[in-house]
Design goal:
The chain is built from 8 helices and 20 strands. A 6-stranded mixed beta sheet has the order 11-12-13-10-4-14, with helices on both faces. Strands 15-18-17-16-19-20 form a 6-stranded antiparallel β-barrel. The protein has helices spanning 14-19, 40-49, 71-81, 132-142, 163-168, 214-223, 232-241, 283-292; strands at residues 9-10, 23-27, 30-35, 51-55, 60-66, 93-100, 106-116, 121-127, 146-150, 154-159, 182-187, 190-195, 204-209, 227-230, 296-302, 314-317, 322-331, 338-345, 355-359, 362-368. Helix 2 crosses helix 7. The radius of gyration is 21 Å and the shape is globular. The chain has 380 residues and is an alpha+beta fold. Among the domains are: 9-57 and 153-241, Gyrase A, domain 2; 295-380, Aminomethyltransferase beta-barrel domains (Elongation Factor Tu (Ef-tu), domain 3). Strand 12 and strand 13 form a beta hairpin.
Length: 380
């Protein structure tokens, strides 16, 4: 007898999306807008050309503070839980980090903002939707001296080359922000915490909106002719073109940062010979791989066979030996041909060996390409 599935949770702006003709689908326990009447490809290309609003309120928003009010407590506890270093981390700067298990596997990837001035020190964390409850429980277990609370707010991503111009009409201060900077903006008189970031490879902002003002602010953004709504379908194709991994597809608790091209998330100070070597979960395994390398690596490929290559397709060598598996794949709306991320044995990537993806028992040639597939356009 199977257990009944839990009902899907609704995001705060569900009614707005329904009114705009969203097609909903289940994702990470939420009923989410997947696409709108114009379709995924149109939303993708509009984001590349102008600006789109993505609702990412399913993501977990956390506020982290020391129970004793001391920033030293905050920093020490988080540095023991995550491979981060607050020594050179300026106020109002966002960084990418990883919540690792004891084997060095990636339980989740996180975005952290350090907020510190003369009166306070806190960290804001955005966690993936499917992991938000587990992340909260794990962080509370690893950091008993910290108060870690969920922030009850909507979260949107305004993405695209016109994002700054659009948002500047509501608060001109956003124009001075650069990639991975955070600031509190005033949008229609509401205080909204924003970062210049997003997961599309385009310039843009992620903005936390008070629940009682979120509908009004999003509708005002949509009044601008440069702005359209876009769903999770276009967000997925955009992030794949940018070569950004998706937790649950390209990275998971069985994969390590080194295997996943995420070694940059381990600061030099936390590596062998650094001032704060190790000391985080999975450190032994990760530090070993940083020196010795990994047996398998996440790699970008393109295909010109004209057939989409999806996740879970097998990668084989010229002798039909299985050497890897596709983790994400799509027909790129920007490039017009299939692109994919695959985890492949490192030995199979050496030299000029030919590799193939198996699709319906057909061997389709794939070519290794450098990431990202489409250049990122962050405002640095």
């Amino acid at each position: 007898m199977t257990e009944p599935s839990l009902p899907l949770r609704e995001i705060p702006l569900h009614a707005l999306h329904a009114a705009h003709g969203a097609r909903f689908g289940a994702f990470a326990g939420f009923r989410m807008p997947i696409q709108y009447a114009g379709g995924l490809r149109a939303e993708h290309l509009h984001t590349r050309a102008a600006a789109s609003v993505f609702d990412v309120s399913h993501m977990g928003q956390l506020r982290v503070r020391a129970r004793d009010g001391r920033r030293e407590t905050l920093y020490a506890q988080l540095e023991a839980a995550l491979p981060v270093d607050f020594a050179d981390w300026a106020d109002g700067v966002q960084r990418y980090s990883l919540l690792l298990n004891d084997a060095g596997g990636i339980d989740d990837d996180l975005m952290l903002v350090h907020l510190a001035d003369a009166e306070r020190a806190e960290v804001r964390i955005v966690a993936n939707a499917g992991n938000r409850d587990a992340d909260l429980a794990r962080l509370r277990s690893l950091c008993p001296a910290l108060a870690i609370d969920e922030i009850d707010a909507a979260l949107i991503a305004l993405q695209g080359p016109q994002a700054e111009a659009v948002l500047s009409a509501l608060d001109p201060d956003c124009a001075s922000m650069r990639f991975l900077q955070a600031r509190t903006l005033s949008l229609l008189g509401a205080r909204c915490f924003a970062t210049r970031s997003g997961y599309t490879g385009e310039d843009g902002f992620e903005i936390s909106l008070p629940l009682d003002r979120a509908h009004e602010i999003v509708e005002r953004l949509l009044d601008d002719p440069r702005v359209s709504l876009a769903g999770l379908g276009a967000r997925d194709t955009l992030r794949l073109e940018a070569g950004l991994p998706l937790h649950g597809n390209d990275i998971d608790p069985t994969t390590t940062p080194v295997e996943s091209g995420l070694s940059f998330a381990i600061p030099k100070s936390r590596r062998a010979g650094g001032t704060k070597t190790g000391g985080f979960p999975g450190a032994d395994a990760v530090l070993h791989q940083l020196v010795a390398g990994a047996a398998r690596v996440l790699t970008g490929f393109a295909s010109h066979a004209g057939v989409p290559i999806r996740a879970h397709a097998t990668i084989v060598d010229e002798n039909d030996n299985r050497v890897g598996e596709v983790s994400s794949g799509t027909l790129s709306p920007t490039l017009g041909y299939p692109i994919l991320l695959a985890r492949v044995e490192n030995a199979a990537l050496q030299g000029q060996a030919s590799l193939y993806a198996m699709v319906r028992e057909r061997r389709l040639p794939v070519e290794r390409v450098a990431l990202p597939f489409v250049p990122k356009r962050y405002r640095r």
